[in-house]
Amino acid sequence: MQFYDFLPAPNPLIQATDPEMNTKITQIKKRDEYNERDSSKNLWDYFTDNKQNLVYQRYDNYPWSMIPLNNHRFTASCFFDCRKLISLNREIKLTEFQSILYKNLFPSTMKQKEFKPLQLEQDNKNYSGLKFDSHYESSNLFASFRIGLYEYDLIMQNDTNSKGHTQWFYFSVENTQKNALVTFNIINFIKNESLFNLGQRPVIYSIKSNKTRGIGWIKAGTNVVYFKNKYKRENSTIKTYYTLSFSYKFEYSNDKVYFAQCYPYTYSQLNSFIDRVIKTNQFSTVKDLCKTIARSQCPLITIGKGKKAILLMARQHPGETPSSYAIEGAMEFLIRNCIEAEMLRNHFTFYIIPMINPDGVIFGNYRCNLSGTDLNRIWVNPHKELHDSVWYIRDLIKQINQSTELSMIIDFHGHSKKFNSFFYANNGADQLKLFPLICSKISKMVNLKDCSFSIHESKKKTARAALQEEVKSGYIYTLESSFHAYKRQFSQDFNDIHYKELGVDIILSIFKLFQQEMFQSTFEQNINFKLPTTINSQQNNDLDLFIKNYDLSQLQLNQDDSGSDSNPEEDVLQDQEQLSIIESRKQSKAQLITKKKIIKIDKSTQTDISHYQNLMLDEKVLSKIEEQVKALRKNNNLETIGILGNDVEFQEGQKCEFQQTDISLQQILGKMQVFHVRVSNKNSMFQHQFTTQSSKPVVIVLKNPYSKQQLQQNQLTTFQQEQLSIKNRRRVASINGRASIESKRLANERKYSIQHYQQEKYHGQSYQYNTPMNFMSQDTTFDKIANISKIRFNEKQVVKNQF
Questions:
Q1: Contacts 24+ apart (CB under 8 A), 216-224
Q2: Distance from CA of residue 547 to its chain's centroid?
Q3: Worst-scoring range by mean pLDDT, 371-375, 399-403, 781-785?
Q4: Residue 308 CB partners (closer than 8 Å, separation 6+)
Q5: Where would I find the Peptidase M14 domain in this sequence (predicted)?
Q6: From CA 131, how far away is CA 538, in angstroms rounded?
Q7: How far is CA 299 from CA 265, 288, 309, in A?
Q8: Cα–Cα separations (whole angstroms), residue 585 to 80, 84, 92, 460, 591
Q9: Is pLDDT of 218 > 70?
Q10: Do 715 and 770 touch, CB atoms closer than 8 A?
Q11: Is residue 104 within 8 Å of residue 117, measured between CB atoms?
Q12: DSSP for 243-255, written as a single string
């Protein structure tokens, strides 16, 4: 076994280029690259404007693509009530997920549809282009557009119940033509940096190449470039997406070829490994840790029967497939017949969770589980149903610590921005530096210079930070492995074999870290020292000498992990957004119809002040208020509002903003900290909200449509009143008779009470009785107006809150 010296600081790989490649990249960038002067559209605009070029779509997600709270529609998202999915209490297979969405999770705000397969352009007999597919495990292609004879724009599906998290890709194509050079542009990636600009290439698997030459997954493709494009994100006016563009020349006609970001490792692949290797081995046992939201089994593998425990786990983030290969290599070594594995099994019990997030892996997510949660951000307080595996792992750790000592935790991950493999730890204590130092000496893929020994504020809820107190020794690490390459004398692309070797090196490093402790207890154990060794005596002595003479206090490592792989918070649904998705599905059809009627009435009676307050003001009072409003309209940037000679200051950051249009009084509110002023014109209705620091009422009036003189002019004669249709009389009565019994009682108790319309059995009263006749005098104070306004406002809010 060879030992390795320290790696130099990472340097960018320089991608080999040729004139044809540069020309192709220039053409793609010229069309799609971000330009500040360009009034770019968002991704939803692109999707709707290019439907004539659409050749493939995974499913019709339109009913589930909008967040009800803010009406933001996300092109490739799927929002649904995850608790309702849990209540089905059945295994959700990928092939039936679409039909379950239609049958059980259809939004109640939309008209129910029956599930029907989409009619795709690529299914036509005359179609001659590539045929795409993503209806299989871990795939995530949402839509493809044919923009040229040999060029396609692709949109990857967002993680379920999230607004983004797109970086992983996995899809297949058929109907290929030999020697055809095809360009694929994935236009909705979110990270601002990528190793694809530093030499990384997609991994590709050809069915015919595997059958004829035995070739599996390989890194291939040309013209690889990653850049900021012009398509804005749906919930932002500033941020845009990024494009990954690459070309591939097909070797066979009528072949089926798979493309992925990194070597795929599926849930089925894990189960096959468990059945083939783990269950047939005498040193290991398998049981279910828990069942997930989709009722997938989360396996827990136990190896060894030692008195102390070590916890290994992987695939919190489904798209980080290198972690699965690494932890598989670790398990394979632990069940070997060698001295190191034997001693580890006798001294430790290894608890291994190889796939924490099986639902995310199955459904092709990059970072989240089905509920849209980044599992590595909720370890402080996980939910038993929504964050099932994390909750049960924490419970497992409690059980372990009650009976024995948990000596180490390693959380396996993948990294899309850095080279090599490296560790994150919580602090820079010399004790914690020893294990990464040993790993960097044993493994050619681990670079000590890339390690970080600190915890950023954004990582306080990760497993590494939340479980720190559960490990008395402090040995808790996050292991990151590059999607691309590691570097020694020269750069070397990672492949699946390298990731497995990394897992073996991690276990050997654990052996070396606890070697002295294990040798002290070997006399009490039955160790077969005739077994072969992985590290010979000379190598072991050299490593001991190196560790003994190395001064860990002089080892300077990175103290900032804030620049880790991504910022997941911006794509996670906020609490209010999640609540709006859940509550919108709880509304019955009857409630929704009633709500639509109320909205319709609101719009049809914008000038009817009696509909809002049934409040009449004297002309002299109106004239005083109108003078104040005219002063306001001269300058929209006034910092104060005059109220009959008294100034009320705005809170910091608030401004007076009113439409410069012909508007009419709709609401008069007072004696509250938040005041609403509704104004309207012929085309639209605006609502402005501002906050003051005063308890005095604020009144905004331009013109009262029911002033005393106007009412007298508009009163109908008895004959005209009798000519009103029953329909019109009922409409007026329904508008004016909506006041609650409680508000009527309160109004009648006051000497300045308002005359309410008392609904008659047949609505036979004339229009003049429907209109309030008890006008307020000019002596009416604004405090009295505010009291009445507040009652009416609260009444209306109660009606709205029911929906």
A1: 217/260, 217/263, 217/264, 217/495, 217/496, 219/493, 219/495, 220/248, 221/246, 221/247, 221/248, 222/21, 222/246, 222/247, 222/248, 222/249, 223/21, 223/24, 223/25, 223/183, 223/247, 224/15, 224/196, 224/200
A2: 44
A3: 781-785
A4: 347, 348, 349, 404, 405, 406, 407
A5: 263-514
A6: 58
A7: 15, 5, 18
A8: 9, 10, 20, 34, 12
A9: yes
A10: no
A11: no
A12: EEEEEEE-SSSS-
Encoded tokens for 548: 């003994």
Residue 476 has pLDDT above 70, yes or no: yes
Angle between helix 496-513 and helix 430-442 axes, rounded to 10 deg = 130
Q: Which two tokens stand for residue 255?
A: 């072949």
Separation of alpha carbons 475 and 312, rounded Å: 12
Q: Residue 744 has which token pair?
A: 């009527």
Distance CA 74, CA 66 (A): 6
Query: pLDDT of 224-247, one tens digit each?
Result: 999 999 999 988 878 899 999 999
Q: Report strand pairing: 170-174 vs 222-232.
A: unpaired
Tell me the pLDDT tens digit for each residue of 31-81: 777 766 665 688 999 999 999 999 999 999 999 998 888 788 999 999 999
Amino acid found at 644: L
Pairwise CA distance, residues 421 & 444, whole Å: 9
Is pLDDT of 18 > 60?
Answer: no
Class of residue 686 by CB neighbours under 10 A (exposed 0-12, middle 13-18, buried 19+): middle
Q: What is the residue type of 421?
A: S
Q: Which residues of 9-24 are buried (b: 16+ CB within 10 A; e: fewer)?
A: ebeebeeeeeeebeeb
The model's pTM is 0.73
b/e burial code for range 760-785 (CB count within 10 A of at least 16 → b): eeebebbbeebbbeebbeeebebebb
Mean pLDDT to the nearest integer, 80-94: 91
SS3 label, residue 553: helix
Nearest in space to 191 (alpha carbons), one of 485, 564, 463, 572: 564
343 vs 746, higher pLDDT: 343
Q: Which two tokens stand for residue 128?
A: 């001659």
Q: Which residues pair with 517 in a beta bridge?
A: none
For the chain, the residue count is 803
Q: Are 368 and 360 in contact (CB under 8 A)?
A: yes
- Which residues on adjacent β-strands are paired with residue 146? 152
Measured in whole angstroms, the distance separating CA 698 from the mean position of its chain's CA atoms is 41
Q: Rounded mean pLDDT of 15-35? A: 62
Whole-number Å distance between alpha carbons of 484 and 262: 8
Least confident piece of the model among 69-73, 628-632, 663-667, 743-747? 663-667
Angle at 519 between CA 513 and CA 523, to 5 degrees: 155
Region 757-783 average pLDDT: 39
The alpha-helical segments, DSSP class H, found in 477-564 are 496-513, 515-520, 537-549
134 with 140: CB under 8 angstroms?
Answer: yes
Residue 560's alpha-carbon distances to 415, 421, 432, 457, in angstroms, are: 16, 17, 16, 10
Partners of 680 in the β-ladder: 685
Q: How far is CA 95 from CA 78, 90, 104, 134, 135, in A?
A: 16, 14, 15, 11, 7
CB-CB contact of 267 with 277 (8 Å): no
Lowest mean pLDDT: which of 75-79, 493-497, 592-596, 614-618?
614-618
Secondary structure percentages of the chain, helix, strand, coil, to 5:
35, 20, 45
Q: Judging by DSSP bridges, how do beta strands 151-156 and 476-482 pair with one another?
A: unpaired
C-beta of residue 696 within 8 angstroms of C-beta of residue 782: yes
With 70 as the cut, is the pLDDT of residue 564 above it? no
- pLDDT value, residue 396: 97
- Catalytic residue list: 480
State phi, psi for 247 to the nearest 5 degrees: -120, 155
Q: Whose structure tokens read 């993503």?
A: 134
Helix (H) / strand (E) element for 154: namely strand 151-156
